[in-house]
Each structure stands twice: as C-alpha cells, then as structure tokens.
Write a structure and sequence with these properties.
Length: about 140
C-alpha cells in the first residue's frame, strides 16, 4: 500500500539488496578489543553521565548479550545500600545475590560491575595500575 519504495522479502533472496546481503555477513556483535582499555579507564573515571561513542559502544556490548549469570546491582536501601546480584537468564526468576558483596557508594558499585563484566568478556583483569585507584573500597563481607 502507498508509495513505499521498500520491497518485501518473502523467503526469496533474489529480492535482497547488496546492502542486506552484506549486513547478514557481518559479525553479529562488536568484540572487545585491547585498545578498549582506554574506554574502560574513561568509565572508571566517570561512570555516570556523558560517554564517548567508543565507551558507549563498549557499554552496549556489556549490557547486551546473554542474561544468564550477568552481574547486576540490587537496591537494598534506596540511595544508601546495594548488593551484587546475578541474573538467572529466566524472565520472572529472582536475582541471585552474590554472598558478601554489598556497597554503600553507588559509583563504586557501578565500577565493580563494570570490572566484573570486563573480565567476563575478555577473560582478563584490567591492569592493576588502571583499575586499582577505582576499585570499590566500600564492599562489605558478611
């Protein structure tokens, strides 16, 4: 209907444009690269607020993907206390709290989740000279 210039593809690749074919052949996700350590440092310095396009791309990767086991923050007391949790990957199922990991400073909590997600995505810890000054100092253990 109407004057749409878009064609529909009814299970027939003959109608696919070259762009659509090329897009299907691209990797489905951006992968974290060694040079992204610069964006990691940017996040650790300023976890909240405006982020550069490179950092935003990295955060999109960290926040997307599989839900099972993903680290999240759970509010224990609004604006006062948070706990580290992990998602089950099943909608409606409760978040599992990571025993002994609580925060009293929101930005420290955000930084810790970032560092944990970085490790899960790369298999590596951020070098201590980059991360040490930003590591949460307010975690409490039960």
């Amino acid at each position: 209907m109407g004057g749409s210039s878009l064609s529909t593809n009814q299970d027939n690749n003959e109608n696919s444009s070259d762009f659509e074919v090329a897009a299907r052949d691209l990797p489905s996700r951006y992968l974290v690269q060694p040079e992204d350590v610069l964006f990691a440092k940017e996040f650790l310095v300023t976890p909240v607020g405006y982020h550069s396009p490179g950092l935003q791309r990295l955060l999109n990767v960290m926040r997307g993907g599989r839900l099972i086991g993903k680290y999240v923050l759970v509010v224990l007391e609004p604006h006062k206390k948070w706990a580290l949790g992990q998602l089950s990957g099943v909608r409606g199922q409760a978040v599992t709290l990571v025993e002994g990991v609580e925060y009293t400073h929101w930005l420290d909590a955000e930084r810790d989740v970032f560092l944990r997600r970085w490790h899960e995505l790369t298999g590596k810890e951020l070098s201590s000279d980059i991360a040490s000054e930003f590591l949460p100092k307010t975690n409490t253990t039960k």
